[in-house]
Write a structure and sequence with these properties.
mainly alpha
Length: 104
């Protein structure tokens, strides 16, 4: 019974460990998020300009895998990954004539 307050205090200390302690630290953390957001915005925007080809298919696969690193994005990225590695999607992206999407 005496250990319960100790556990509560330790758990709140670890939760508050990531909170910036000064305005300068908060500004720096915000700038890091803005820069990373701009980099990823550019990386994902480039995928619309690549067109079809082996490099573009691989590039988009890497972007999907980057999305898999966040547990918030898993519900949308797992079905997307399953669709992306299917043979008919890969063949269409590489320009082979298959079924209704092949243009033949």
């Amino acid at each position: 019974m005496l250990q319960f307050p100790e556990l509560f205090i330790d758990s709140t200390a670890s939760v508050n460990a990531n909170v910036p302690s000064s305005p300068d630290e908060a500004y720096l953390q915000g700038m890091i998020y803005v820069i990373l957001g701009a980099v990823f915005l550019g990386a994902f925007a480039v995928s619309f300009l690549l067109g079809r080809g082996k490099f573009a298919w691989t590039y988009n696969l890497v972007l999907i895998c980057i999305g898999l690193t966040s547990c918030c994005c898993l519900p949308s990225n797992i079905p997307l990954l399953i669709f992306w590695i299917r043979n008919d999607c890969r063949q269409w992206y590489l320009g082979h004539k298959t079924g209704e999407f092949g243009g033949g």
